[in-house]
Amino acid sequence: MKNKREEDDMGSEESGSVLKRQRVDEQSSASGIGNPLVPYNDVDDEDEDFERGKTINGVGVEGSNTQVVAAENGEDEEEEEDVYGQGDSLERRKSQFEPREDCPYLDTVNRQVLDFDFEKFCSVSLSNLNVYACLVCGKYYQGRGKKSHAYTHSLEAGHHVYINLRTEKVYCLPDGYEIIDPSLDDIRHVLNPRFTRDQVGQIDKNRQWSRALDGSDYLPGMVGLNNIKETDFVNVTIQSLMRVTPLRNFFLIPENYQHCKSPLVQRFGELMRKIWHARNFKGQVSPHEFLQAVMKVSKKRFRIGQQSDPVEFMAWLLNTLHANLRTSKKNNSIIYECFQGELEVIKESPNKAITEKKQNADDQNSDQRITDGGTKHDIFTETSGMQFLMLGLDLPPPPLFKDVMEKNIIPQVPLFNILKKFDGDTVTEVVRPRVARMKYRVTRLPRYLILHMQRFKKNNFFIEKNPTLVNFPVKNLELKDFIPLPMPKENERLRSKYDLIANIVHDGKPNEGFYRVFVQRKSEELWYEMQDLHVSETLPQMVALSEAYVQIYEQQQ
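Now predict its structure.
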């Protein structure tokens, strides 16, 4: 009888343990860690993990559930931990993940394959949460716990060194400890370039070349941009804006715009720092992350694979950056400080009431006659002020006939002739939204003047390009000799002399052409021609021998 009762007691204990383990499995599967398709998210701070009673390798959730079940059944926690092989104390587990300086896998780090220009997404789960880069093969993986993709990759491929792309901490997997080694600082600088205010102030004085890992030399700030697919209109715009010193200095220090949460502002700042960084692993930069932000914010108005106009893109970019950076009290930003000027606009349009009277009189064949349309009463004059970020210049129409040699004549026009549009006397006829005669006069010059030549005209059938060459000076453009300017205040002097710093040109047919840009390097006053990845030094005389489309002039101080 005793043996039978003992067998019954043993059977009841076994059935109780089975039920208990079933409850453990149900709770652990409900937590989502057992499902490999669920995005895995780690906590990077080991101290927080241990305070919550979790282990860093991802098993801690299951262990905590086990302890809850054990407490419900009135069993001892240590016995339950021993069943799953987790009898180590909290202190021993802490010591297991202490940072180490003697990692034996540092020699496997391959800097040749590291590329941090692309979006920080896991290559397996496509999640952007808690992403690590494998420093051996360069691929991105999520998490570092036992069920994570980075942990699995470390076991399958034998790659053991990973960097967290957000915190910049380096870990050894599958062991899980943090690696403390100053030899990894160059990777951190490439991942997140940083500048001090003293370094920013010395950039224009630096004449030193930098060397990439492949042995090629490059100039910081004069690196090529990768054309992902028909994105040359973005590349020339970025290269031009990089020459605007206050704008560049503002975005090189992230603290200046840390209050702004716009992804476009953050990606523009990151791209700016990568272009001017002197410790890059390669001599070119890919604007992939910036283009993704542009596509998202512009709602795919500008996107990869579709050619767009640099004038439209630059106008949209400057206005969007201003809207995100401006303060609530004052409608001001670094964009307006650099590029904003003011115009006085005189608009002369037919008086609407008198025009309607004329039409009624004509319709009714009335003998009543209205005064001649040239009198002042027929014209409504309106004067207003207008702020601008760039000025559009009209080119004279090209000739329709060929010369004696049966070749099309390419006309040339001085820049000063087309600048007369803003002298306050020249009349510009407009049709939309209503027929009117416009006169423009500059009342305040910006620190950086952006001019764009209106080369393209669209009609119902095709886009027509005006090939007129504009003759312009590279240095000492004196505006006061050609357009009337307001008198400066008592303590100020008139600054009306400008130097060219960037010139965007268009080559080829309207629908099939491409863009390139000439930019000046201030440290040596040399000119460079840039077309995507191609960067070469050129002569100042060559800058003026092209079909200029957008120009940026810097005011002489």
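The domain at 106-189 is CATH 3.30.40.10 (Herpes Virus-1).
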